[in-house]
Amino acid sequence: MRERIRRAIESRLMRAPQEYGLPLRKNLGWYWKLRVGDYRVVFKVEGEMVYILGIRHRKSVYEDMTERIR
After folding, report:
1. In what order do the strands lie in the sheet with 39-46?
2. How far is the C-alpha of 59 from the C-alpha of 45, rounded, in Å?
3. Rounded Cα–Cα distance for residues 13 and 43 (Å)
4. Exposed e or buried b for every residue in 10-23, given b needs 16+ CB within 10 A?
5. What is the Cα–Cα distance from 59 to 9, expressed in whole angstroms?
6. Can you tell me the distance from the alpha carbon of 4 to that of 24, in angstroms, rounded to the nearest whole number?
7. Nearest to 55 by CA among 16, 9, 12
8. 3-state class of 48 per DSSP?
9. How far is the C-alpha of 32 from the C-alpha of 3, rounded, in Å?
10. Residue 34's domain is classified under what CATH number?
11. By residue range, what is the domain housing residue 30?
12. What is the pLDDT of residues 18-48, one digit of tens each?
């Protein structure tokens, strides 16, 4: 799974993050998500830079990321 996530980040986020990702809402409104199987990559786009906030299983990703930005 790690390899699959790494390939997704390299092939999608490094090329066109806003094309492949979906914007998040509410507390994580400034962030985007990329779905890779049962995992989510939460990231932020600033200009040409992509910052990854975290990679978590879909069951806990939004709780974990909300706690992380506080």
Report:
1. 22-23, 32-36, 39-46, 49-57
2. 24
3. 9
4. eebbeeebeeebee
5. 20
6. 22
7. 9
8. coil
9. 21
10. 3.30.2310.20
11. 2-69
12. 999 999 999 899 999 999 999 999 999 999 9
Q: How many independent structural domains does the chain possess? A: 1
Report helix, strand or coil for 60.
coil
* pTM exceeds 0.90: yes
| DSSP-H helix ranges across the chain | 2-8, 17-20, 61-69
Give the tens place of pLDDT for each residue, 42-62.
999 999 999 999 999 999 999
Both structure tokens of 25: 């809402």
What pLDDT does residue 37 have?
A: 97
Site of tokens 């092939």: 11
